[in-house]
Design brief:
Blueprint lengths: L3 H24 L9 H16 L1 E3 L7 E3 H11 L6 H24 L3 H11 L1
Antiparallel strand pairs: 1-2
Helix pairs in contact: 1-2, 2-4, 3-4
Length: 122
């Protein structure tokens, strides 16, 4: 992999973008309309994963690029594009990450939330 610097730049920019998105989502709108903290973190993480998922570039063995870039380039700009592999990587990566995040929400619920659920049910 001869292009480590490019992937470092992509990772740094994805992290900065995710941090800014987190700040925007945390401070926007009235308190009752905001996303809960844990759900906001899952959403921001999914955006960062979206930008960091690698996919092989067709016709260039051993060369990887962000999957969304390969998908857009192959589906829009190539007449005989091969976007299936990058599309599958995006769907599996984001779907799997979402499932893991939602399972983590359920498993790591705080004890305070469980107690208020019982009080509200009574």
């Amino acid at each position: 992999m001869l292009y480590v610097n490019e992937w470092i730049a992509i990772a740094v920019l994805a992290f900065i973008g995710a941090f800014c998105l987190n700040l925007v989502l945390r401070g926007s709108g009235p308190a009752r309309a905001r996303l809960p903290g844990k759900l906001r973190y899952i959403f921001v993480t999914m955006v960062m994963v979206f930008f960091l998922l690698p996919a092989p570039v067709p016709n260039y063995p051993g060369v990887y690029a962000p999957a969304f870039v390969v998908f857009v380039f192959e589906s829009v700009f190539q007449s005989n594009g091969q976007a299936n592999e990058s599309q599958g990587i995006l769907v599996l990566g984001l779907g799997g990450g979402s499932i893991i995040g939602l399972l983590a929400l359920v498993v790591f619920r705080s004890k305070n939330n469980r107690g208020t659920d019982k009080v509200a049910a009574d």
